[in-house]
């Protein structure tokens, strides 16, 4: 049924870069046969799963939205994908994304933009616009994404879906094509808080292949979501509203829905506390130094030899000529911009001034969150300052995209978990608005509990 739905609507939405009809149907039949044979299977066995193309898969291409990985086939599955398959989930396709997850609109994909199912003239958010749109358009009930600066939460908000960035290290990054390794985190996306939690339970946990993955006995996220759905479940919960996350330029309808969400939290027993966190103002500036620095290093491996595309200059040339021609043709404008920025920020004589300073700001932000979480259990903010903008609206002005990340980026800098859930539509444009909830590291379950309480 989901493959039929994809065939019917994906020509308009373009959520998928590849689908795996044959392997999906085979996997579904295998699950049916095992069930018929009396095997006890997990709750999600047989449920379709869309996978952001940042995660490598053996049975489908993995491009990370880039031309430079065109034709690349991975010899192994990313751990999150392997865990999902082991739980019986059926991988139906790979979803569109901004190139190497650099972007907030999915317009930076080398394979054309994804459209917002709510309004085809609008962006679906990014970088994981494909995963969020696939879920919102009922092409898949569940999807995997990656969140380096908001790429699960912001597209979830813009498409009326639910998405969660786990605590850094909560889900293995093995087989996730790296953007900025100290910020990247894999996580789930779905249409309800409980569905998102169920997928989270499947992919979480320690992985010997990822040295940053946490060896921690995670509680059941699904159990927390079910608990939260009970009346009055937030009694005594302290919810912080951070002044600096109500950034300049928050759209009127976003403010309105956010105020209503705060009322809902209060009605469920939560107590609201105002928080001042002055260094959050510098989060965007710090992030857009740290991310390009790490990205320029991670993207150095696309050298025309080891992966994907190879372009030979006319009349031949040296190894360097081939590398240069391949990178010129294979990387898009945003990837090039960040490689140049990052290389500059890391270069001798500038390292301390840029990368070093940004890391100091990152520490200050981490401390500010630690202080805030002495006063509150959860922090609430709009997921993004605006609803989905029109395709092409930010063309040629990447700074507009960057500024839209002001609300999501702090969680990545601090390594803490963040949830986005839909809280209605903005009256002025009829487009979905997301509520972001943040919690201390390891407290992902608290987010599912709180989110389910007001869903
Ligand atoms: N919009 C952010 C960026 O462009 C988010 C990226 C992400 O989370 N992958 O860097």
From TrEMBL:
Gene Ontology MF terms: ATP binding; glutaminyl-tRNA synthase (glutamine-hydrolyzing) activity
One Gene Ontology CC term in the entry: glutamyl-tRNA(Gln) amidotransferase complex
Pfam annotation, one family: Amidase
InterPro entries linked to this entry: Amidase, Amidase_CS, Amidase_dom, AS_sf, GatA
Catalytic activity: L-glutamyl-tRNA(Gln) + L-glutamine + ATP + H2O = L-glutaminyl-tRNA(Gln) + L-glutamate + ADP + phosphate + H(+)
Keyword flag Ribonucleoprotein: no
Record key words, sorted: ATP-binding, Ligase, Nucleotide-binding, Protein biosynthesis
PROSITE patterns attached to this UniProt entry: AMIDASES (PS00571)
Domain Amidase: start-end pairs: 1-447
Enzyme Commission number(s) of this protein: 6.3.5.7
Active site: 52 (charge relay system), 127 (charge relay system), 151 (acyl-ester intermediate)
Any one GO BP annotation for this protein: translation
Subunit structure of this chain's protein: Heterotrimer of A, B and C subunits.
Family: Belongs to the amidase family. GatA subfamily.
Function: Allows the formation of correctly charged Gln-tRNA(Gln) through the transamidation of misacylated Glu-tRNA(Gln) in organisms which lack glutaminyl-tRNA synthetase. The reaction takes place in the presence of glutamine and ATP through an activated gamma-phospho-Glu-tRNA(Gln).
Protein name as catalogued: Glutamyl-tRNA(Gln) amidotransferase subunit A
Native organism: Leucobacter tardus
Lineage: Bacteria, Bacillati, Actinomycetota, Actinomycetes, Micrococcales
């Amino acid at each position: 049924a989901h493959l039929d739905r994809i065939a019917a609507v994906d020509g308009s939405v373009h959520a998928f870069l590849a689908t795996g009809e044959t392997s999906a149907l085979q996997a579904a039949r295998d699950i049916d046969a095992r069930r018929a044979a009396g095997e006890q299977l997990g709750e999600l066995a047989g449920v379709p799963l869309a996978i952001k193309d940042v995660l490598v898969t053996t049975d489908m291409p993995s491009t990370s939205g880039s031309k430079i990985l065109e034709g690349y086939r991975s010899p192994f599955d990313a751990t999150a994908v392997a865990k999902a398959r082991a739980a019986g989930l059926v991988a139906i396709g790979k979803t569109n994304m901004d190139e190497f997850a650099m972007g907030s609109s999915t317009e930076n994909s080398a394979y054309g933009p994804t459209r917002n199912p709510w309004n085809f003239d609008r962006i679906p958010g990014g970088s994981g616009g494909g995963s969020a749109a696939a879920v919102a358009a009922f092409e898949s009930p569940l999807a995997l994404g990656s969140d380096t600066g908001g790429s699960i939460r912001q597209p979830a908000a813009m498409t009326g879906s639910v998405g969660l960035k786990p605590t850094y290290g909560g889900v293995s990054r093995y087989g996730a094509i790296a953007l900025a390794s100290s910020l990247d985190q894999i996580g789930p996306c779905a249409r309800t808080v409980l569905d998102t939690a169920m997928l989270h339970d499947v992919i979480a946990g320690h992985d010997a292949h990822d040295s940053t993955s946490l060896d921690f006995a995670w509680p059941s996220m699904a159990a927390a979501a079910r608990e939260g759905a009970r009346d009055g479940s937030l009694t005594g919960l302290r919810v912080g509203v951070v002044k600096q996350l109500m950034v300049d330029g928050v759209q009127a309808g976003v403010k309105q829905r956010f105020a209503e969400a705060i009322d809902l939290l209060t009605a469920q027993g939560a107590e609201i506390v105002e928080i001042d966190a002055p260094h959050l103002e510098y989060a965007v500036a710090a992030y857009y130094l740290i991310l390009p620095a790490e990205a320029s290093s991670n993207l150095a491996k696309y050298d025309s030899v080891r992966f994907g595309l190879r372009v030979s200059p006319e009349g031949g040339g040296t190894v360097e000529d081939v590398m240069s021609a391949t990178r010129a043709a294979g990387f898009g404008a945003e990837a090039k911009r960040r490689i140049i920025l990052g290389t500059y920020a890391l270069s001798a004589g500038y390292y301390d001034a840029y990368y070093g300073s940004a890391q100091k700001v990152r520490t200050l932000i981490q401390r500010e969150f630690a202080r805030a979480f002495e006063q509150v259990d959860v922090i609430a903010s709009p997921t993004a300052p605006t609803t989905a903008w029109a395709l092409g609206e930010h063309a040629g002005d990447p700074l507009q995209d960057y500024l839209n990340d002001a609300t999501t980026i702090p969680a990545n800098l601090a390594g803490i978990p963040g949830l986005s859930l839909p809280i209605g539509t903005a009256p002025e444009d009829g487009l979905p608005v997301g509520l972001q909830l943040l919690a201390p590291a390891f407290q992902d379950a608290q987010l599912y509990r709180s989110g389910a309480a007001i869903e």
